[in-house]
Structure formats: C-alpha cells, structure tokens
Design brief:
This protein has 74 residues and is an all-alpha fold. The chain contains 4 helices and no strands. It has one domain.
C-alpha cells in the first residue's frame, strides 16, 4: 500500500488544499490556546466616526452585509 504522502501527492491540487486545511484544523484543535486576559487594542479605533453613526445604524449595515442568510436563520 502506498504511503500517506504518496497518496496525497496523487490528489489533484484542490483536494490537496483540502487535506492541508484539515491537517491545520487538527493541529489547531490539539494546540492549547492561551486563555489569558482579553486585550482591547482596537478600543477607540473608530472614535473619529463617533457622532456619524449610531449602534443601530451599524447593526443594520452589518445585517445588510451579511445578506439574506441572517434573515432566514442560516
């Protein structure tokens, strides 16, 4: 039986990318992630837009960007 590496090499490029993505997923799942304190380095990044938009305006814009998937529950 051919080795795993040989079998992967025989795959078309799009399926090889899927295998790579799956391997990355498996690695990320096993590596413990830091659960340290959250950092708010982005805080205040949009301060110059304050007064131009309300939080409701932004929520509507986000829903518009997401499209119909949100309204259908997808």
């Amino acid at each position: 039986m051919p080795s795993l590496e040989d079998r992967i090499k025989d795959l078309p490029p799009d399926l090889r990318r899927e295998v790579e993505d799956f391997v990355e997923f498996l690695i990320d799942r096993r590596v413990p992630h830091s659960k340290g304190k959250m950092k708010f380095v982005w805080e205040g990044a949009l301060a110059d837009l304050q007064g131009q938009y309300t939080s409701v305006d932004l929520q509507h814009k986000i829903l518009e960007w997401w499209g119909d998937d949100v309204s259908r529950g997808h």
